[in-house]
Specification:
binds pyridoxal-5'-phosphate; two-stranded antiparallel sheet; globular; alpha+beta; 3-stranded antiparallel beta sheet
Length: 235
């Protein structure tokens, strides 16, 4: 079924300069071609946490990255002051990193993580456990911060269940906090707009819990009066 009206695509059609193929200059001297095919229809891709219509009217499209810079499709260099989203701190386009990724993909591109393991995961877990403070000696790998946040909440709830304290189910977040896009992370996140369609999500895991996600001021941990949920009921 065709969409009756594609607002974002229409707005792009009015800007023919966006439709031509652009070539991004490369900062390194490798022989790999750098032609960048800019799509002429940006409508289908729903972008997260982005004002989609505004973005697609004036898209900021990136074509490459090297060291501390991004390179836009029209060839401008932009300093990446945030290291991606705090995850490219070693710099962009590091050949040691891309070579290691390529080597592993050639040797074993994917293995199921359920009931199978790969040696490198065990080795990395041991190295992280060695670096972590005493008592933090087990590692659970996740694919994203969102998955990590939801997993941490699940571990906390399961831990108290196993301790025989299943009513300890109240999760406390901070106002304005961000913990990703999963249900749990959204619930404990303190960005009101992210929650407004979903409420606090983590509702009533036990019959005694009323509403078990609360938010407190980022500057005042003891300020129960500012919670968006009532304090825990006495046990
Ligand atoms: C504290 C925190 N939790 C969770 C996330 C979500 O991470 P991801 O985008 O990898 O899902 C972020 C990302 O900025 C974060 O800063």
């Amino acid at each position: 079924m065709a969409f009756p009206y594609r607002n974002e695509a229409d707005s792009l059609r009015a800007k023919p300069s966006l439709l031509k193929l652009e070539e991004a200059p490369r900062l390194d001297k490798s022989s790999r071609p750098a032609a960048v095919n800019v799509p002429n229809d940006l409508a289908a891709h729903w972008m997260p946490f982005t004002a989609n219509r505004a973005f697609k009217k004036a898209p900021r499209l990136l074509a490459g990255a090297k060291d501390m810079h991004y390179i836009t499709v029209d060839g401008r260099k932009i300093i990446d002051a945030a290291a991606g989203m705090w995850c490219c701190n070693a710099g962009h386009g590091r050949t040691q990193i891309s070579a290691a990724i390529a080597k592993q993909a050639e040797a074993l591109d994917y293995a199921p993580p359920f009931q199978f393991g790969i040696p490198q995961a065990f080795e990395l877990a041991s190295r992280i456990a060695e670096l972590a403070p005493a008592g933090l000696d087990h590692v659970f790998f996740c694919n994203s911060g969102s998955e990590a946040a939801d997993t941490a909440l699940k571990i906390a709830l399961a831990y108290h269940q196993l301790q025989g304290q299943g009513t300890r189910s109240r999760l406390i977040g901070r106002e304005r906090g961000y913990h990703g896009v999963g249900f749990g992370g959204t619930a404990v996140g303190g960005i009101v707009n992210n929650r407004k369609m979903f409420g606090t999500l983590q509702n009533r895991p036990s019959p005694r819990a009323s509403r078990n996600t609360a938010h407190i001021s980022p500057t005042n941990w003891s300020a129960w009066s500012t919670c968006t949920a009532p304090p825990p009921s006495p046990r």
